[in-house]
Amino acid sequence: MTRPQQQPLLGILGGMGPLATVDFLGKLTRLVPAHCDQDHLPWLTLSQPDMPDRSSAIRDGDDRPREWLAKGVAWLAEQGVSLIALPCSTSHFWFEAMQEASSVPIMHIADATVEELRLSPLPRSGKVAVLATRGTIRSGMYSARLRAADFQVVVPDEAGQMKVDRIIAQVKAGEGSAARQEMQLLQAELSRQGVAALVLGCTELPLACDHRSADGLPAVDVSLALARACLRRLGYLD
Amino acid sequence: MTRPQQQPLLGILGGMGPLATVDFLGKLTRLVPAHCDQDHLPWLTLSQPDMPDRSSAIRDGDDRPREWLAKGVAWLAEQGVSLIALPCSTSHFWFEAMQEASSVPIMHIADATVEELRLSPLPRSGKVAVLATRGTIRSGMYSARLRAADFQVVVPDEAGQMKVDRIIAQVKAGEGSAARQEMQLLQAELSRQGVAALVLGCTELPLACDHRSADGLPAVDVSLALARACLRRLGYLD
């Protein structure tokens, strides 16, 4: 790409889903301590909501997302971006294939989450529940890293996972208030099961959290964690 | 660009300002009647907040934005987008140069606004005030089109324009609540002057409107108008 001036560009592969991508871009923008447009981070986002569903692909052993993801990051790298982010946990199932296809580093969303946890005041005692798609849960990307950082990790049982699936589908279908109601019920149930904190391990889930309600469990938003980690790498945050 | 599947892509040149771009992308996403990711519109956005300020360039007769804008749209066109949108009114000062540089059509934000007005229940009687940057006001892009559509158009006096300038700068600096306060005062003043409706002719201004407050004047949001017009062109809305 030819730009009249060359400042570091962040490359973002999005659309998985589309609202989660917009939510990530909003977080990225609001986190920058900027006084005017020119203080902000330039970025390039390709939003491809038309790619095959990642979670069902993992379930069915269908490898079609690999081509979309590898081509997407390779194309971003060719445009001269300095770092790539994917505001979609499930896509990180194909992380190695993507990193191999890209000549620039990709910030892993679960590494960003652990970085965020290290800097957060979240209690180390008590169980942390990972809420994510079945594909992400199956990959173990969050559980493995959290256990390595000495957290007690739990994942929802089948009834709980069905609720998580439903919340994600509701956000993707634009049914925000139904998603928020379902999330409140799920949080109350997890709290009764002794869960002390949540990792919102799918970028749709923060969109189902009602920040106006005070009865939610403390939660790490992986989308916010990814935005912060990218801004730190590119020198926009300490 | 090589994508495994070729659906029409919307190209967006953004960053002017960054929050207004995210706001536009959010509107674009929420307007699509989608049930899952795959129903959504694919898009490609280049956000260049580091380009020179448009309004002061127009004031000072500085033509540097032309190169950024022309290169930006030319690059988007080369990537195979079907239509280009710029969620920034002031940049449309260089519309002809951009359209000349781009092999694909650019949706003019003021044409989209007139299209929106034609479809809206806004009263035809009474004065419509155009709120925008000094550069946009000077270009007359909204006034000319609104007068041609039989609206009585007014623009703020110097004291009013200073308030508009301040609101836009506050949104760009992330000072949302100060911007909303200032906007409420300005609306009350315009209402006293007999203004019946507003054209929020700068994509930062909708971000300063408090939708929870009922005492605002009816307003056309040019960012929403642009999103709707693009979705109609690409077959996502009737």
From TrEMBL, chains A, B:
Pfam families in the record, alphabetically?
Answer: Asp_Glu_race
Q: Where are the transmembrane segments?
A: none
- Cite the GO molecular-function annotations of the record: amino-acid racemase activity
Per its UniProt record, what InterPro entries does this chain match? Asp/Glu/hydantoin_racemase (IPR015942), Asp/Glu_race (IPR001920), Asp_race (IPR004380)
Q: Which residues form a coiled coil?
A: none
Question: Which keywords label this protein?
Answer: Isomerase
| Top-level taxon of the source organism | Bacteria
PANTHER family membership: ASPARTATE-GLUTAMATE RACEMASE FAMILY, GLUTAMATE RACEMASE
Q: Which family does it belong to?
A: Belongs to the aspartate/glutamate racemases family.
Q: What is this protein called?
A: Aspartate racemase
Provenance organism? Paucimonas lemoignei
